[in-house]
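My current task is to audit a protein record that another person submitted. My question to you is simply how this chain folds and whether the C-alpha cells agree. This is what I was given:
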Amino acid sequence: MTSPALPPQQPPFLPPPLPAVTNGTAIAAVVLGPIAVLNAAFVPLPYLGIVAIFTAFPLAVATIILGHLGLRTAGRYGVGRALAVIGLICGYLALGVILSTAATFFSLFLLSRPSMVG
C-alpha cells in the first residue's frame, strides 16, 4: 500500500514590510544642538561673543523647537525619542549659557555705572 501524494505546501502569507519610519525633526535637533552649544561657548568671550550671540541664539531656539517637534513625532511613531531629548538638552544648555552671560553682562554694566544721586 502506498501513501497518497501530499499537495505541495504553500508558504505562509507574509504582509508587506512596513516602510521605515525616521524622525527627521529629532535628527535635525541632534545635529543643530552641538553646533548651538559650541557657538554658545564663544558668547562669554569679549569681542568674539558679539558675533557668536547672533548665531548661537537662533540655533538654540531652532534646536529647542525641533526637539519638541521630534518628541511629538516620537510619541506618534515611537522612533527617535532619545535623539529628540539629546537635542533638547543641547538647546536648553546653549540657551542657558546665552542668558546667563547676558544677565552677567547687564548686571555688571548696571553696577559699574556712577551714581546719579547727590
The mean pLDDT is 89. Residues 103 and 109 are 10 Å apart (CA to CA).
